[in-house]
């Protein structure tokens, strides 16, 4: 890369640090931004700067927000008694895009007492009746679910988790053993 113009080299290095961007993609993107679509490049830089400055963690659900409390937490029409627990704030976007969930969320990034206290407050204040765990299937997730069910059992709520099994369009030979076992356990009548 010594023969590259200094700023172009820096741009490639920045892009290479992004998730799922390899060296070839970084060069292609850098060239596109620097030469082929300068307007998009300036716009992108501006949008990144605004997001970095404006976005924060919602104080109530720990999701992504542009204010102290996020729009979902503030939306009374979503008080349907359901609370979806996710492990990462960005999972909320995936669930929102699916359009299948209309309750509230809570991000449980790590199991600390302070976080559980806030989860209890969220459950009480929002009159939550059902907790839905939307966690990536793993033994660690099973541990988190058992732990939370135990900690929250006194609140008289029900617990469920998203179904697991064989993803659509994936052949059985490419499915890991845990998913295969879970899909058998969660089989349904046809
Ligand atoms: Zn929120």
TrEMBL record:
Keywords: DNA damage, DNA recombination, DNA repair, Metal-binding, Zinc, Zinc-finger. SUPFAM superfamilies: Recombination protein RecR. NCBIfam families: recR. Residues 81-167 form the Toprim domain. Pfam families: RecR_HhH. This is Recombination protein RecR. InterPro entries: DNA_Rcmb_RecR, Rcmb_RecR, Rcmb_RecR_Znf, TOPRIM_dom. PANTHER family: RECOMBINATION PROTEIN RECR. The keyword DNA repair applies. Belongs to the RecR family. A zinc finger (C4-type) spans 58-73. The keyword Zinc applies. It comes from the Bacteria. May play a role in DNA repair. It seems to be involved in an RecBC-independent recombinational process of DNA repair. It may act with RecF and RecO.
């Amino acid at each position: 890369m010594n023969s590259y113009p200094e700023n172009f080299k820096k741009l490639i290095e920045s892009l290479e640090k992004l998730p799922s961007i390899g060296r070839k993609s970084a060069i292609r993107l850098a060239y596109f931004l620097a030469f082929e679509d300068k307007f998009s490049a300036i716009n992108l830089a501006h949008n990144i700067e605004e997001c970095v400055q404006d976005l924060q963690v919602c104080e109530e659900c720990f999701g992504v927000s542009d204010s102290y409390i996020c729009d979902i937490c503030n939306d009374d029409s979503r008080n349907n008694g359901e609370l979806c627990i996710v492990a990462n704030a960005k999972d909320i976007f995936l669930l929102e895009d699916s359009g299948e969930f209309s309750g509230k969320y809570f991000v449980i990034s790590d199991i600390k007492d302070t976080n559980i206290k806030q989860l209890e407050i969220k459950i009480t204040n929002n009159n939550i009746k059902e907790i839905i765990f939307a966690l990536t299937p793993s033994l660690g997730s099973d541990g988190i679910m058992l732990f939370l069910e135990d900690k929250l059992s006194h609140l008289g709520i029900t617990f469920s988790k998203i179904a697991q099994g064989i993803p659509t369009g994936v052949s059985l030979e490419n499915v890991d053993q845990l998913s295969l076992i879970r899909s058998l356990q969660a089989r349904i009548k046809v």
